[in-house]
Write a structure and sequence with these properties.
The complex is a heterotrimer of chains A (about 300), B (about 240) and C (about 400). Chain A has one domain (about 5-280): Orthogonal Bundle (ABC transporter involved in vitamin B12 uptake, BtuC). Helix content of chain A is about 75%, strand content about 5%. Chain A contains eleven helices and four strands, in the order ααααβββααααβααα. Chain A has helices at about 5-35, 40-55, 60-90, 95-115, 140-165, 165-175, 180-185, 190-215, 220-235, 240-260, 265-280; strands spanning about 120, 130-135, 140, 215. Chain A has a two-stranded antiparallel ribbon with strand order 1-4. In chain A, strands 2-3 form a two-stranded antiparallel sheet. In chain A, a hairpin with a 2-residue loop joins strand 2 and strand 3 (about 140). Chain A is globular and about 60 Å long. The termini of chain A are far apart. Chain B has ten helices and ten strands. The termini of chain B are far apart. Chain C has helices at about 1-20, 30-35, 65-85, 105-115, 130-140, 170-185, 200-215, 235-245, 255-265, 280-290, 310-320, 330-350, 355-360; strands at about 50-60, 95-100, 120-125, 145-150, 165, 190-195, 220-225, 245-250, 270-275, 295-300, 365, 370-375, 385-390, 395. The longest helix of chain C is centred in the first third of the chain and has 20 residues, at about 65-85. Chain C is globular, with a radius of gyration of 22 Å. Classes of the chains: A mainly alpha (about 300), B alpha/beta (about 240), C alpha/beta (about 400). Chains in contact: A-B, A-C. The interface of A and C includes residues 141 and 260 of A.
Chain lengths: ~300, ~240, ~400
């Protein structure tokens, strides 16, 4: 395998990790509420731009990410309180909620345009450790390594939270049977809010990471990313985080190979072609659970 | 003081009047059963008491605490547990995780361990399958799980909605033996059942629900021997 | 109560939809005020009996290119103000009517319809991008309205009709400048082209590839097509590296060129990068940071020029602009176009469009962006120069340095 091809793969894996991390936001919300959160892309952009804002005030980048994480979590919880919970209470059809999240998406994006302007903004990489290692003939920058480490670490952390903690047990219970969860004494609305916070937090961190990686951020940066990561989440099986990881890597690598060989104009199509093909053969995605029927 | 006092409760589904001025009580230590045909409103009554359904009017008191307006998640900590119709287990979680959720609000590890032991002693089959994903259990095992989960928090009042539904006859006997056993251990029981025969046999008192209204009440024995009841519900 | 609320909501939505028309404050309201013309719409009319001379200024006032739109509007206003301060044109005050084409071709045609319906408008300064100017042109041509685009560089634009003119140099001019620079000044051997997948990008890339070959048949050209919306240029960079290119020409706007250049220079810090006039913007420097050093751009004008009029323009622009932006060649072309039209009106002594058109064919106007003289195709071909940045300061290279 020649080194050009290997470089495509390396780029693809890094891209794939990014997609997987952002896709977590979709999976989290879908598994708990069975809705797709169309505002996720805009919230991701919010995370990047707010981090930049704090960095420009002279605050340490990592601290900026932390503050933004909390703010973005709150922004996402606000969406639940304002758009989604009221509809849930009235047993509105799922479509209403989808449209509501779409609306919230526009509000957030336009608010960003008003606050930050529509142009591109420079975002200095705050995790460039300055070295490059060589695997064979492939140069891998420290930026890539840190990105991989943080994305991977975050996904591991979330998997741990969901699968090994008390609160994670409650989240899984709410995902599988909301009524019974209430009977167990679980405050479902709080769990839902908490899940939204988590989704917002991952969006913020991934936004800051990606902005730092490409050194650029702008209000509409979530649009294409939002669609692709939704495809990633669907590919992995909405609700399965490790599925998102595999899905992300598949899409990321294929995208880079296609961009390199067939031309970069085709790269956006890749995620959707992959999605369509997989869904034809495996409708619940790679790891999605088909509903377990009770006896 | 009655343990549970339901007074003139009305529940609507949209414009459908599902239960009308329903009143019943459970005294401490009793097994009380609510019988009736399909669609009579038995599960609606359970839903109203457990806090899952809003009530248009009426009052529900538990240990003299007014729980009428409380949501389900605030009622459970007071000492009521419900094993719902259709079992309501968490199908993707293991047996053990399901049980753990039954005592979700309790944090004491020793307590939890004791409760696991209690349930596993009562239901050895659950012990065998404690790591099994509960969605793959058989119907009977899932019912055991639902009951076991409900008693994990040592509730003062255990409510059971159609525990015998879909079970093979020997399992039905087994479940009713367990119910009696739990009651003997000090838990009061409110039991909703279609299987009027078994229910009335173990009940101290019973109520009969027809199209949303309580039409008769009495001791288990009285109702069992009542000719109308026998004709309507006991197949004679 | 619910019904009342719903009706109220629908009313609110309907009102806000109507109220949120794209036009700027001065815009379509003007057509309502215009005195009814006697002449039939199709014939070139005496532009109304108003006591101002009205020019339409069209560009992307909202949307993705809104920053450009603002620059165009402000620059046009500086020229109008300059004339008004000196007694106006033919004794009348110059009034600019601003229209927003949102950068969307569908909208371009809409705006054109609005403009031709206003008999008092003498000429159109616009549109900005070739796709829009070309979408609107048939409507202007049909109604005998002068369309003079300050910035559209597509070869087919002026061919649409004899009411369609342009002040901007052609894509061919820009392509020739860049190709000569790359081949002669730099002596490049392997050239990569980063091509934005739209009319302009594809067109100019083709032209450059041809020019390069005609200057030096041994030059190898590698093209990579990209679309906007993705900031990941990994595979493109990999391909250029694998091909061993020593120079990259960015046939794209700064939103694409800037992140690409960064990533390219991370892989090869020595690589030479050149772009076009649309990258002369400040945001490029902001986005590139240190990487902006030795970033080259072809352009028709630079704010570092030392002539009186440039200084005047830059001063006025700074006064007017709330965002502290540095003006670019494209802005200046709007400034020049307004000046050119007003001069033409003065020369022929009338606001009759036929007369103005006849004058345009003869006029020679010294604009900031060069000597403006239309050829028989209604184009203003001229040579570009080159700037490069060093520590965020522009340095100009006159094209005599590489023109063979």
């Amino acid at each position: 395998m020649n080194s050009t091809f290997l470089l495509y793969i390396v780029d693809g894996v890094v891209l794939g990790l990014i997609y997987a991390l952002v896709a977590c936001g979709y999976s989290l919300i879908f598994s708990i509420l069975r809705i797709v959160n169309f505002a996720h892309g805009s919230i991701y952009a919010f995370g990047a731009l707010m981090t930049l804002f704090f960095i420009n005030q002279g605050i340490n980048p990592w601290l900026s990410v932390l503050i933004t994480l909390i703010l973005t979590g709150m922004l996402e919880m606000l969406m639940d309180k304002v758009c989604i919970e009221p509809l849930r209470k009235r047993n509105s059809p799922g479509v209403s909620t989808l449209i509501a999240t779409e609306g919230y998406s526009y509000v957030v994006m336009n608010m960003l345009i008003i606050l930050f302007g529509s142009g591109r903004n420079h975002f200095e990489t705050f995790y460039d450790l300055g070295f490059t290692i060589n695997i064979g003939s492939l140069p891998i920058s420290s930026t890539k390594l840190v990105l991989l480490a943080i994305s991977g670490g975050l996904m591991l952390l979330m998997t741990y939270i969901i699968n090994k903690t008390h609160v994670g047990l409650a989240i899984r219970a709410v995902q599988q049977n909301t009524t019974s969860a209430r009977l167990m004494g679980i405050k479902v609305n709080r769990i839902v809010l908490g899940t939204f916070f988590l989704a917002g937090a991952t969006a913020a961190v991934s936004g800051a990471l990606v902005a730092g990686y490409y050194q650029i951020c702008y209000p509409t940066m979530g649009m294409v990313m939002g669609n692709k990561t939704l495809a990633t989440a669907l590919l992995g099986g909405l609700g399965a985080m490790h599925g998102g990881l595999l899905g992300g890597i598949i899409i990321g690598v294929l995208e880079c190979i296609v961009a390199g060989t067939l031309g970069a104009t085709y790269r956006d199509a890749v995620s959707f072609v992959v999605l369509i093909v997989i869904l034809i053969f495996m409708p619940s995605g790679l790891f999605g659970k088909k509903d377990i029927t009770k006896v | 003081m009655k343990l549970l006092s339901v007074q003139d409760v009305n529940v609507f589904y949209g414009s459908i009047h599902a239960i009308k001025d329903v009143s019943l009580d459970v005294e401490k230590g009793e097994i009380v059963t609510l019988i009736g045909a399909n669609g009579a409103g038995k599960s609606t009554t359970m839903g109203a008491i457990s806090g899952l359904l809003p009530k248009k009017s009426g009052k529900i008191l538990f240990k003299d605490i007014d729980i009428t307006a409380k949501p389900a998640e605030d009622i459970t900590p007071l000492g009521i547990a419900l094993s719902p119709e259709g079992r309501g287990i968490f199908p993707g979680l293991t047996v053990e995780d399901n049980l753990r959720l039954g005592a979700y609000l309790k944090k004491d590890k020793e307590y939890i361990k004791r409760q696991y032991e209690r349930v596993y002693t009562m239901f050895p089959r659950l012990k065998e399958r404690y790591k099994q994903v509960s969605g793959t259990l058989s119907g009977g095992e899932q019912q055991m799980l639902a009951v076991g989960r409900a008693i994990m928090s040592e509730p003062e009042l255990l409510m059971l909605d159609e525990p015998s539904m879909g079970l093979a006859p020997n399992l039905v006997d087994f479940i009713f033996e367990i119910i009696v056993d739990i009651n003997k251990q000090g838990t009061s029981i409110l039991l909703v059942e279609q299987n009027a025969n078994m229910a009335l046999k173990i009940a101290d008192r019973g109520y009969v629900l027809t199209t949303g209204s309580i039409v008769m009440e009495g001791s288990g024995k009285e109702l069992l021997e009542n000719p109308e009841i026998r004709k309507a519900y006991l197949g004679e | 109560m619910k019904k009342t609320l719903s009706i109220l909501l629908v009313l609110v939505m309907a009102i806000s939809l109507v109220a949120c028309q794209p036009a700027q404050p001065a815009a379509p309201a003007a057509s309502a005020d215009a005195p009814a013309a006697d002449a039939p719409a199709a014939a070139p009319a005496e532009a109304g009996a108003s006591d101002t001379i009205k020019l339409a200024v069209v560009g992307p006032m909202t949307g993705q290119d809104a920053e450009y739109g603002l620059g165009f509007r402000q620059s046009a206003q500086i020229m109008a103000d300059k004339w008004n301060a000196n007694g106006g044109c033919l004794g009348k005050q110059v009034e600019l009517v601003v229209f927003d084409d949102k950068g969307a071709p569908e909208e371009g045609a809409n705006v054109a319809e609005q403009i031709v319906a206003d008999e008092s408008i003498v000429a159109v300064v616009g549109h900005f991008s070739s796709s829009l100017s070309m979408a609107a042109a048939p409507i202007y041509q049909e109604h005998g309205m002068l369309e003079i685009s300050p910035c559209s560089s597509h070869a087919d634009y002026t061919g649409i009709g004899d009411w369609i003119w342009r002040v901007s140099p052609l894509s061919a001019d820009e392509a020739r400048t860049v190709s000569k620079f790359v081949a002669n000044y730099w002596g490049a051997k392997k050239v990569g082209q980063l091509v934005m997948n739209n009319d302009w990008g594809a067109d100019i890339a083709e032209l450059e590839a041809e020019f390069l070959k005609s200057i030096n048949p041994d030059i190898e050209v590698v093209q990579e097509l990209v679309v906007e919306g993705n900031d990941d240029y990994g595979p493109v960079v990999t391909n250029f590296m694998a091909a061993g290119v020593d120079t990259v020409i960015c046939d794209a706007t700064y939103t694409v060129a800037a992140p690409f250049a960064k990533q390219m220079r991370l892989a090869n810090p020595e690589i030479r990068v050149v772009a076009h006039g649309n990258c002369q913007v400040e945001q490029l420097i902001e986005v590139l940071g240190d990487q902006s050093n030795n970033f080259y751009c072809s352009c028709s004008w630079s704010p570092i020029f030392s002539d009186e009029e440039t200084k005047f323009y830059c001063e006025k622009y700074a006064e007017m602009d709330a965002n502290d932006t540095t003006p670019i060649g494209d802005f200046v072309q709007y400034y020049d176009t307004v000046g050119l039209i007003l001069q033409a009106i003065t020369n022929c002594g009338s606001t009759d469009r036929e007369a103005i058109r006849a004058e345009l064919a003869k006029i020679e106007y010294q604009g900031l962006s060069g000597l403006l003289k239309f050829d028989e195709n209604r184009d203003c071909p001229r040579d570009y120069g080159m700037v490069y940045w060093d520590q965020a300061q522009q340095t100009w290279i006159q094209n005599t340095e590489w023109n063979s």
